[in-house]
Amino acid sequence: MAAPNGSHATWTNQVPIAVAPLNCVPYTGPPLDNSDAEMAQKESNQVSKNQPAMVFLPPQTTEKELNDILETTTHGVVVSGGAASGKFGPLIGSVDISESHDTFLFRVALPGVKNDKKLKCDIQEDGSITIEGATETGEKKVHVHNMVFEMHTQNLCPPGNFSVSFQLGGPVDPLTLEKELANGVLEGVVKKKPLKGL
Q1: This prediction's pTM
Q2: pLDDT number for residue 62
Q3: 162: which of 15, 81, 128, 156 fits an S-S bond (Cβ 3.0–4.6 Å)?
Q4: CB neighbour class for 9 (10 Å; exposed up to 12, middle 13-18, buried from 19)
């Protein structure tokens, strides 16, 4: 059987390339060898910090690893916990970011999240934002109206804690943050920090 590129090599002679998949399931394949790591490092050095990136982290990720990843891009999004589990359902943590001359606007998809004390939005002066909370949907048994329902399907977000972190395009004044959670979307507006000397 010929290979798709038209060569006559058989598939059994092809050497697989160890590449991490581009999806929301954490990579669990064989460890990448050093040549792949070196090539990935060269490619990552060529990527502009202004390019958007979404990174899914396993639950054991340290705060230092999280900060190192966020520093590599000004428009990056990092998700962990239930948001990075790769389970079926609407994706928690999809982010839209926009800006005007003096303000940033961000919207974060948080389906199945209630606006309660569990939901926290932490913003730093450098424009980094971390949103933490818990989803309330996707359970196997639902207690509603004094009845218990066993769910036949579970296509909503899995229940549990989540964390979403991302970086706005510059420094902000955290005290000016106004946010609202409605219809499964957290929308926030924050003023840019005025540049000194202007």
Answers
A1: 0.56
A2: 78
A3: 81
A4: exposed
pLDDT digits (tens, 9 = 90+) for 9-47: 455 555 555 544 444 445 455 555 555 555 555 555 554
Best CA proximity match to 174, nearest among 187, 186, 191, 188: 191
Q: How far apart are CA 132 and CA 164, in angstroms?
A: 7
**Beta-strand pair 128-135/160-167:** antiparallel
Give the count of alpha carbons within 13 A of 2, CB side only.
5
Contacts of 18 (CB under 8 A, 6+ apart): 29, 30, 32, 33, 36
User: Cα–Cα distance between 31 and 20 in angstroms, integer?
Assistant: 10
Rounded to 10 degrees, the C-alpha dihedral 52/56/57/63 comes to: 30
For the chain, what is the radius of gyration of the CA atoms? 21
